[in-house]
Known about the structure:
The protein is of the alpha/beta class. It has helices at residues 12-24, 38-45, 62-75, 99-120, 146-166, 184-188, 196-200, 206-218, 228-239, 242-249, and strands at residues 2-7, 30-35, 51-56, 78-84, 129-133, 172-176, 223-224. The protein has a seven-stranded parallel β-sheet, sandwiched between helices.
Amino acid sequence: MKVAVITGASAGLGKEFLKALPEACPEIEEYWLISRNREKLLDAARLVPKQCRVFPLDLTKDESYGKLSRYLAEFKPEISLLINNSGCGFLGDVGEGDLARQVQMVDLNLKGLTAVTHLCIPYIPRGGRIINISSIASFCPNARMTVYSATKSYVTAFTFGIAEELRAKGITATAVCPGPMDTDFIVAGGIKGNSKTFELLPYCDPAAVAKGALAASARGQTVYTPRVFYKFYRLLAKIAPTKLMMKASRT
Ligand SMILES: NC(=O)c1ccc[n+]([C@@H]2O[C@H](COP(=O)([O-])OP(=O)(O)OC[C@H]3O[C@@H](n4cnc5c(N)ncnc54)[C@H](OP(=O)(O)O)[C@@H]3O)[C@@H](O)[C@H]2O)c1
């Protein structure tokens, strides 16, 4: 049974993946949808005309990794596609506000993504693909979203690492680096209305990001950055001094 595992499938970009996948990957026979809220997952499952299993798991919690490990051992899926999409980002300086928020970004974007990938890889056959949702925030540190941008730098670097490790096994990994998208993320993160940069930046359409990411992954691309504007930003971040880039990219 060819399976797609999608974290953060209940909202935003995750739902757009669910809409795009049946056409982009018709070979997938079953979908495993993961996020915290069962009702939202069941609602999202209606978007997919194939069999879905929903797994309400909080990916910041160690006990969720044990549960996922047991589900994998029980069902032994052939994971054709893993999409690590769950993520959160909060605006605010380190040392101010709620510690729980800073730690939540590390636990979900970094620890959760690493754990899900580690547990799923043994079930990914030759020809399988991994898509990790990173961000333009991975290109250079963003003050006021320091922890978020650091976690996303990890996601992009981690993707390069596993792409190399998995090359001989015929498995690809793709880091997807979108700019801002108008999803719950920017409301939950306290970003909407509180960041001039976010108001000025061109937004990415989540439906286009999902389709572009699936196409880039099918080509075996290691990094996919939607929109010419952000491709240029990525290039600039590689050649310009970090401190200079940070002035322009302060959130
Ligand atoms: N929106 C942007 O501006 C933007 C820009 C660049 C990159 N991104 C990245 O894109 C990805 C998708 O974000 P989005 O914009 O679609 O945000 P979103 O609409 O807020 O969706 C986030 C998803 O993650 C799930 N999630 C949150 N906390 C979780 C947890 N502890 N355990 C498991 N799942 C959890 C949510 O479901 P539950 O709440 O039910 O758990 C939801 O399905 C994220 O990795 C984000 O960092 C977003």
